[in-house]
Structure prediction request, 976 residues.
Amino acid sequence: MTWEAVIGLETHVELSTESKMFCGCPARFDAKPNTNICPVCLGLPGALPVPNREAINRIVQIGLALNCSVNRRPVFHRKNYFYADLPKNYQISQFDLPVCVDGYLEVGGDHPGRIGIERVHQEEDTGKSTHRGGDGRISAAEYSLLDFNRSGVPLVEVVTRPDIRSAAQARAYAQELRLLVEALGVSDARLEEGSIRFDANISVRSGPEAPLGTKVEIKNMNSFRSLERAVSYEIARQTARLSSGQGIVMETRHWDEETGVTRGGRIKEGSSDYRYFPDPDLVPMEVDREWENRMAALLPELPSVRRERYEEMGIDTAQAATLAGAEAGLSQLFEDAVEAGAGPGQAANWATGEVVASLRKAGIPSVGESSLNGPSLAELLGMVRQGSLSGSAAREVLAGVIAGEGSPAEVAATRDLLQISDTGLLESVVDGLIAANPDEFARLKDGERKLVGFFVGQVMRNTRGRADPKLAGSLISERAGL
Amino acid sequence: MAFTTIAGAARALRTGRVTSVGLADQVLARTSMVEAQLHAYLTLDSDGLMEAAARADEELAAGKDRGPLHGIPIAVKDNMTTRHMETTAGSRILSGYVPPYDATAVRRLRDAGALIAGKTNLDEFAMGSSTENSAFGPTRNPWNTDRVPGGSSGGSVAAVAAGMALGGLGSDTGGSIRQPASLCGVVGAKPTYGAVSRYGLIAFASSLDQIGPIAHRVEDAALLLDAICGHDPLDATSYPGEIEPSGSWLDRGLDGIRVGVARRLGGADAVEPDVEAAFDRALAAMEGAGAVTLEVDLPSTEQGLSAYYLIAPAECSANLARFDGVRYGLRVDGVTTEQMMSRSRADGFGAEVTRRVLLGTFALSAGYHEAFYGQAQKVRTLIREDFARAYTQCDVLVSPTSATTAFPLGDRTDDPLSMYVSDVFTIPSNLAGHPAISVPVALDRHDLPIGFQVMAPALEEAVMFQVAAAVESLTGFDTTVPFDPAYGLRGGVR
Prediction:
């Protein structure tokens, strides 16, 4: 029997708006605990929510980028459940009338496919609990600390249809979604800081036509790697159980990164009864055609479109993906360099290779914060192409440009890195070396051709890498009468 | 002489016949005489009141006049947050809770120069019609202390009726201002939903709650309302447009006003004969003053009480979820977080609140949601349509405010349904979101006040107050509570 996994992902994306979803507090939760709080996000008696329009702008952009249709009258509902870090003991979320519905995201790479998007809805984040004592879990903790800085930060939830069929595809989808929200500039999109979080719903069935199996929800995956591992583990676990005739329990399981297994928690009672009802503190919004059009006009080029464009420029698929997926400044650098006359292939190689390495070495987090720009990269690459800079010298010049020492020509001149292409100058170096190594030269003359390399190496060392190795080689061959 | 009206006191303040400190002294003196019998206040801020009164006098002397409420002592229902002043909502779960902010209505009162005398008693979380559901003991009716003052704003209403403040703020979810105003012989108004910000009003049922004024005279109620109403960016349901000041047309009379008589509003039956008679006498007087009356029928309002007792509990079940012992208020420890929450809520909430939270939780449950909450919302739409139809034929609607006058303490506490029926006449306006006001028109055979309700379409407060002021002057009812300094108030309790 061929088992087939059926996977749906729910992705929470924290928006990087200035203020929180329903109050004016800064939407930053890296501050000292409980400093970005007010009566509203603390759920104090009498406080009322007022929606943040910028958050709605952003969710509409996400929805449009995911090919969704926009609800003209989306409604906020209260989702009722008791939890210590949920200040009102209900979360303002959406139920049957989310902001965006019915879209899709194309996933490329090794696991291509169109993943259906069921809905994109807006909600508020909860506070954060830290359990102290015991093993750090709530059940064994002596006490818990609550930080409400995150409470009320706008959260967008993107829910797929059960269209994903493998762990690798789940990862590919998640990465593509991250690229998309990053390109939109609506979120910090940093997984390590929890600004994107995943839940997976997984079931396994006996074949593509078979009815759906019992689904299990997996939580607590905070990297692409752990998402892929967790989904992979869970598929294997369910397949093994089904293969040996055991059933699957509908439940929520937690991924344990250290041991690499999912652990059962509380069993889901059917589906939890959240007693959703429209929040009477909020009037229905009116997202009219005009609003939608304004947001559509703000959409930047999406990663998938950019990738295709790069491929059409002759850049290979992997590099196009890297470049389109890299931070915005890098693809901009690439495009500006090409615009300034650099060859696309060479520019892509350098942008994704040397530039990234040099920035990292210099401890500069992004291109934008360095002195490097498209025209200067193009100038540097031109010098390499013309033979006035060797590869290693070019790397040094790049470091100088990044450090703000001047244009590539200036750096090359100041650091004395220009390639020696002056035949007369090189001839004297070559002649000196022949005189210093008579035995080797004799063997070369007798036809031991590999000694050309020895002499070229000596020339390079003598000129500190500045000689044109091709010219040096031909001069030596000439002297030896080859 | 004692000042009982805001407008009168405001004039006297400006002619120098009285000072704000004098007014504060007056209400504190009266409070010291009757509060032991009434229990209208949960917090009386005597020191704060005297300081604020002195400041108000200084300001006025320096030429800074904040308007008609400048220097006037006001009582605020204890479900509106007051910065640095305990706010309990009449519940043990909030005992000792001091909010860090003022409700918008309170802030606007302060900005208008009013003095907050204290916080008044109420049915716990405003759930009740007699103020007997307060965790801190009942308030009594100043006209007869064996009787309830009505509720849930019984404390504010009793304080105003007995002269312990010149005006008050209450909140009205199903009649909680108008019914006690009727039972205590004062004026009480529920404005259009959205006219007064709910920011800082501890929510009972968010889609129904409105803050409103309580005073001896219609004119005073209009002054209070005009000070607190208007758009508030902190309340998303607050009405964003301009509203005609409610006191604009107080002296225009009734000539040509079309009055719809909704005698059986809410399916009311068993209206006490004295109440019915007083209502008819007021109607006749209105006709005599040029009003055109016609009997109207609002059949859907018969379902109002049922719809109300699904919608209000449903909303309250979520609104009261935040009282869990985690961040503020009563905490009863437990082994787990759930147990701590559960114990805090069990100990912190009274019987009526618990009943409504359970009712609402059930009404929202999967499988029942549509049958209960969904149906109730449909009834609400039908009621709005009934009102809209009625208002094609008339400018205002009138009815009794309450089918009965003040009932004895304990009379309805064992039978929640008999208590719920207290609000049949008042609930329809909350469901429709329309303004309504109760004006005292007479005393019954037991010398207990009878109220007369005037209702108007949304945002038509000015017409409503115009009619209410006319009714007030036509019935000529003296709202002074019988009070003998030697014996205190009338009733069995001394």
In short: The radius of gyration of chain B is 21 Å. Chain B has one domain: 6-301+380-487.
